[in-house]
Amino acid sequence: MKNFVFFACVLITTVCHSARLPPTFKKCNRNENGFNVCLSNAIEDAVRNLNKPYKEVGLPSLNPLQIPALTIEAGQGTVAFQQKYKNVTVWGFDKINCPKAEIDFEKRTIVVGCTTPLNKMEFYYAISGRILLLPIFGKGPGSITLENLNETFTFHFEEYEKKNKTHFKVVSTKITMEPGRITFNLENLFNGDKVLGDNVLRVMNENWKEVFEDVKASYEDAFGQVFAALFNNLLAKVPVEQIFDN
Ligand SMILES: *[C@@H]1O[C@H](CO)[C@@H](O)[C@H](O)[C@H]1NC(C)=O
Ligand SMILES: *[C@@H]1O[C@H](CO)[C@@H](O)[C@H](O)[C@H]1NC(C)=O
Ligand SMILES: *[C@@H]1O[C@H](CO)[C@@H](O)[C@H](O)[C@H]1NC(C)=O
Questions:
Q1: In this structure, which residue's CA is closest to atom 9 in ligand 3?
Q2: In terms of CATH, what superfamily is 4-243?
Q3: 180 in ligand 3 pocket by Cβ < 6 Å?
Q4: For residue 192, how many other CB atoms are within 10 A of its CB?
Q5: Predicted confidence (pLDDT) at residue 211 exceeds the cutoff of 90
Q6: What 3-state DSSP class applies to 45?
Q7: Residues with CB under 6 A from ligand 2
Q8: Is the CB of residue 86 less than 8 Å from the CB of residue 123?
Q9: For the chain, what are the domain ranges?
Q10: For residue 87, how far is its CA from the centre of ligand 1 (angstroms)?
Q11: Range in 18-22, 94-98, 169-173, 198-202 with the lowest mean pLDDT
Q12: Is the pLDDT reported for residue 10 higher than 70?
């Protein structure tokens, strides 16, 4: 019966005004002592298991996560050019650990701290500029691997009423990304000049910290927007009364 209602809602979304979280999602009681611990487990569990889209609650698959286009703005020096990525696929959220989650209902803030052992982004890139003073240009397939990535997500939200139900809406987002190591792989650099391409990649990978530091804020911004949009899709569909268990 549960499944029937679930699928009926998918088909007749106009009848089921406010969506419910899929039954596999854990819920936490706001008045419970261990609320934050419950919340961090619930978030970790949800992210790890989102290996298919849940359209009825506005969520895409996170394992992997597909991003049609991603632009990383130029840095201040080391990477003084815009990076354009298309058809980005991000792997690795199925192994996420989120030991920290805190909601402050008065300040309307949620902070979540997570670690992923290995994230791999696969994409098509197009770049042209200078990196670590070396000229670089090219377009083609590529990947970036981030090892032991620590991430902190801070979302500020507002509350509003829709169809007599309370909803949250994320109004500002801050993400911090601290990777333990980054490996760049860009195929077809310099229109396929492999010797030159391999040399520049080697320099980039030896100096990954410096390279990332210069565009860190742009990465955090770009991913902040991606995750805020994801979260807002869910929050627009699922009222607060359905998210928590009390
Ligand atoms: C990117 O994805 C779109 C939509 O899935 C597809 O039409 C397009 O061919 C892809 N581009 C490349 C270069 O793979
Ligand atoms: C919302 O609640 C009020 C008061 O309980 C009621 O009069 C109204 O019909 C409800 N509106 C909807 C859309 O359910
Ligand atoms: C990630 O967090 C852990 C635990 O707080 C810490 O030991 C580690 O150094 C951090 N890694 C990076 C790259 O900041």
A1: 180
A2: TULIP domain (3.15.10.30)
A3: yes
A4: 11
A5: yes
A6: helix
A7: 163-164
A8: yes
A9: 4-243
A10: 6
A11: 18-22
A12: no
